[in-house]
Amino acid sequence: MIKSVRIRLLPNNKQKMKLFQFAGASRFAYNWALDKQMDNFREGRKLQSNYDLRKEFTVLRNSEENMWLLGISNNVTKQAIKDLCIAYKNFFRRQRQKGYVKYSPKKLAHFTRIDRKPTVYDMNGHPKFRSKKNGDFRFYQDNVKIQFTATHVKLENIAGSRKKNRQRLNWIRLAEKGKIPVKGRYTQPRISFDGENWWLSVGIRTSYTLKPMRGLNFIRKQPGRSCTEGVGIDLGIKDLAIISDSTVVKNINKSHTIRKLKKKRRRLQRQVSRKYQMNKKGERYCKTSNLIKSEKRLLRINHRLADIRANYVHQATRTIINRKPRFICLEDLNVQGMMKNKHLSEKVQEQNFYEFRRQIEYKAHWARIPVVIADRWFPSSKTCVECGYVNKDLKLSNRTYTCPHCGNVIDRDFQAALNLKRYGEEELSKSAS
């Protein structure tokens, strides 16, 4: 099994300059390879393989016009070209899937408005050129040459010289101590910049293996392991999660801290917008130093909001897993469809439903707890937990469920959690038989 770790880097000014150079070289190689493949498309030729593109790029790298690439690690540019080839494979794979739409209705309406015909580049899923303006700073490091200590990471070819005093530049300080094992098998080390900080993402191979069985996720019997009864979890907007044991995970977005940060963000957004309008020259906008400062403050607030929400989801999922339930049953939400409701789209987006489910699945995997995903059309809220009557006329505004058949009165979200728990028990009994 591979465990992924994301940790913040603390580079000095010289190291920051080299990291930006590496990211620029990766972007240059990616865009060069994409331009070559687009020319093959236009002229009706077969797309070039990863080997051919890398061979051509080696000749380009050693030319007089691109001597600056010789100071960059060869693995950075090679992996960028490989990433493009993988992106094209994914693009062709999506085209073979059922229900694939070449152009979205919004995109077609835009092309009609500007009187332009859509091209292959505009197709859904087609690889796009990486832009420096949009802050696309990321690159790959060789998983064999990367080294870790408790406090530092050694990246390849950051220092241009092999002298001892220059080799110190290769070692970049980590923000957390002892988070990554010193001796391990690493996979896909990636360095990225989010506009404020540099981050390192790396996968660590472990000997721990566990395979799913009989269509259910992560089922494995362990004799002698004490565990409580199973739980059903209903996700919602009023509260993040309602568990079948009557536990409620509150909505963090209603807290004072989040509301205060959102209010501050709204003011900063209006301030940035006004500054753009003040510094407009013809059809172009001029960025001043004060405008750049305001944008950095806005970016810092957005990161702060995202970190608070991510931390809250981690704490909630870890609390559920630490109870060691016999199983966990979740519902398969159609988040994309829920986002189409203009009145609830912002609330749905802030709740991080997919992230909650993803964390429950992989943490349950580590704890060897079965995870059952209920069918998307399972009427968990509309089914009476006492008599099984399905009330098809139940509206979203009805927060209390009143059964017209047996007279049962219960909170609709708590009832959905109880029904999901029952659904999980039935699925587990089917798999065991």
What does this structure look like?
- It is a single chain.
- The protein has 433 residues and is an alpha+beta fold.
- It is 42% helix and 15% strand.
- Helix 1 crosses helix 3 (74-96), helix 6 packs antiparallel against helix 7 (289-322) and helix 7 (289-322) packs across helix 10.
Approximate strand percentage: 15-25%
Count of helical segments?
A: 11
Strand order of the largest sheet: 2-6-7-1-5-4-3
**Strand/helix succession:** EHHHHEEEHEEEEEEHEEHEHHHEEEH
Q: Unreliable stretches, pLDDT < 50, 5 or more residues?
A: 211-226
Q: What is the rounded Rg?
A: 26 Å
Shape: globular
Which structural category fits the helices and strands? alpha+beta
Question: Termini distance?
Answer: 29 Å
Mean pLDDT: 88
Summarize the amount of helix as a percent range.
40-55%
Largest sheet: 7 strands, antiparallel
> How many DSSP E strands?
16
The assembly state of the depicted protein chains is single chain
Tell me briefly what this model is.
The protein is an alpha+beta fold and 433 residues long. Helix content is 42%, strand content 15%. Strand 15 (400-402) and strand 16 (409-411) form a beta hairpin.
